[in-house]
Design a protein that fits this description.
Blueprint: H1 8-47, E1 57-63, H2 70-77, E2 91-97, E3 102-108, H3 112-115, E4 127-133, H4 138-153, E5 162-167, H5 177-184, H6 186-189, E6 195-199, H7 205-219
Parallel strand pairs: 1-3, 1-4, 4-5, 5-6
Antiparallel strand pairs: 2-3
């Protein structure tokens, strides 16, 4: 009797189909695993996000003559209502929040009998805000210049960044920033120091916030060249 050949072709074909099926199954399982990882990652990013990193805090001193508008500017930055604004007679501290930092501002009263004590509150400051009334009288402007020069040369402040705000630019008698810069003699006195001179008024708080953002850049010691108007 003729011997029948083994079913070799059928067996090989069957193994090939089974191997192909297993490969497809493994690919499908791998695809599902990748999808699960992706969904889990997105879920964690959206729903399980940790608290944002704490914002850095800086201690600043804010000085200027009475009537320069220090209190009003800081109160507006803190979103306080105008009815609650009272001129500072001694000193006050406000935490002014910004997106990338919190400024703890120590505001000193600007009356004649208080200015002589300003230096007692300079210690620990990391920056200075000097506010002046750009529409003030010649006598007051000269007094403001003398106080600014004294602060710029004080041992505890001379290396710190300065933000100088020429306030009340909305008043008809307001001097331009160029006039104030020349009158204050900033270029020879503040050469080599980090300072910013900006115009401001309560009517344009966005500009005030931009000026404070420039100061924050200086406090963060970024590669930043202040615009000296």
């Amino acid at each position: 009797m003729k011997e029948m050949s083994p079913l070799l072709p059928f067996s090989v074909n069957g193994d090939w189909k089974l191997s192909k099926f297993r490969t497809m199954s493994e690919c499908i399982q791998l695809s599902f695993a990748v999808c699960r990882i992706g969904i889990y990652t997105c879920f964690r990013a959206l729903c399980c996000k940790g608290p944002p990193p704490p914002r850095p805090e800086y201690d600043l001193v804010c000085i200027g003559l009475t009537g320069s508008g220090k209190t009003s500017l800081l109160s507006q930055l803190c979103s306080e209502t105008p009815e609650n604004i009272v001129s500072t007679t001694g000193f006050s501290i406000k935490a002014v929040p910004f997106q990338n930092a919190i400024l703890n501002v120590k505001e000193l009263g600007g009356a004649d009998n208080i200015r002589k004590y300003w230096s007692r509150y300079y210690q620990g400051s990391q920056g200075v805000i000097f506010v002046l009334d750009s529409a003030s009288s010649e006598d007051d402007l000269e007094t403001a210049r003398n106080e600014l020069h004294s602060a710029l040369q004080h041992p505890q402040l001379c290396t710190l960044p300065f933000l100088i705000l020429a306030n009340h630019q909305d008043k008809p008698a307001a001097r331009s920033v160029q006039e104030i810069k020349k009158y204050l003699e900033l270029e020879p006195l503040a050469r080599g120091k980090r300072w910013i001179l900006k115009p401001c008024s309560l009517d344009d708080m966005e500009a005030v916030k931009d000026s404070f953002s420039l100061l924050i850049n200086l406090l963060e010691e970024k590669d930043f060249e202040p615009s000296r108007m």
